[in-house]
Amino acid sequence: MAMTRSERCPPGTDPAPGAAGAAQRYVEVRGLTEELSAPLSAEDQTVQSMPDVSPTKWHRAHVTWFFETFLLKTALSGYLEYHPSFSYLFNSYYEAVGERYPRPGRGLVSRPGVADVTEYRAHVDEHMTRLLAGGLDERSTFLVELGLQHEQQHQELLLMDIKHVLSMSPLDPAYRDGSAVVNGPSRARTGWVGHPGGEAALGHAGGSFAFDNEGPRHTVHVAPYELADRVVTCGEWLAFVDDGGYRRPELWLSDGWAMVSEQRWAAPLYWRHEGGSDWTVFTLLGRRCVDPDEPVCHVSYYEADAFARWAGARLPTEAEWEAVAGERPVTGHLLDPASPHPAPQPAESFYGDVWTWTASAYLPYPGFRPWPGGVGEYNGKFMVNQHVLRGGSCVTPVGHVRPTYRNFFPPKARWPFTGVRLARDAESTP
Fold it and tell me: pTM of the full predicted structure?
């Protein structure tokens, strides 16, 4: 039976670069993963500092497994898998594809080693080059682009995870030497961008790649509101800390206050009080003094919500964020391998530096359907107990984020590059 077009290439996800463009893009994306891994020793690449973190070598192998599993095994005639156990070791959560090694134990697997993973990547790259040179059908073209977008997600995860790994050392080792990007000091006061309310379109309109959770595009109603034109800074967060923000239960959701009490949160993740009014923060560039002009980073949804309440504001819904930010070009401080650290934001910056929490639970849009086949497990199965984040961060690869991109994490998560953008209600215009 012939496949329908939606089975070959889901609607609204046309990748479209052509054979030559796909081959070049494949080389560039795969090369960036190796560039990001290059500063790390074999020991660095094997450590797992908590169950949510994966070793660097696992990220490098898993994205390679994706191309082998969903493309080479099905689309390249005569291909034999590289190692019979790799499909078990490097499957993440694709239950329909087969069994998988438990996530919390990834750091216990010392073999295959880093050199073995490098050989595995080279093997798959060689065969992917053959596949790309031979021409692709519509479904395979879509899967190549999905695999590249997937690898870009893991490039961000790689940096998130290695930051947590390195932070465990009392030596405060730097991922690499470098200086943070400086866009100039942030303004003393937050500006606000007004929206009159009414009907707003939410979701991807098609015509280019998007994940299945970004659609279908649909209409929502928003009341008049204002969105902050920059994210919350470390200086503003210091004022929250100094005002007892982490000691005032009236500011917190019940689950959030339970986390504060259980985990003894007193500041964002990676901050350390040095005495008096001095705070330092661990970064991928080493430990340094907290810069009051930089965006606050590594705060949970619970902290973001408590700060917003303290500030007399609230968090925006994802529809409110998209109605304003979706009209702006996707420009801002995204991944620069030499400087993976948030920078002071210029006026009306809506992308980069830090992902911003929204008040929206991560749920399916009306009419949502997961992609057919094994890749259908990519997003839909996680639509519970998560909150949506928007806008990208300083470790999001350039070209990966879109106005409709829906990132998501549990509300207690702090190790992603997460920050806060405020919203507030506006009076309706007569």
Answer: 0.93
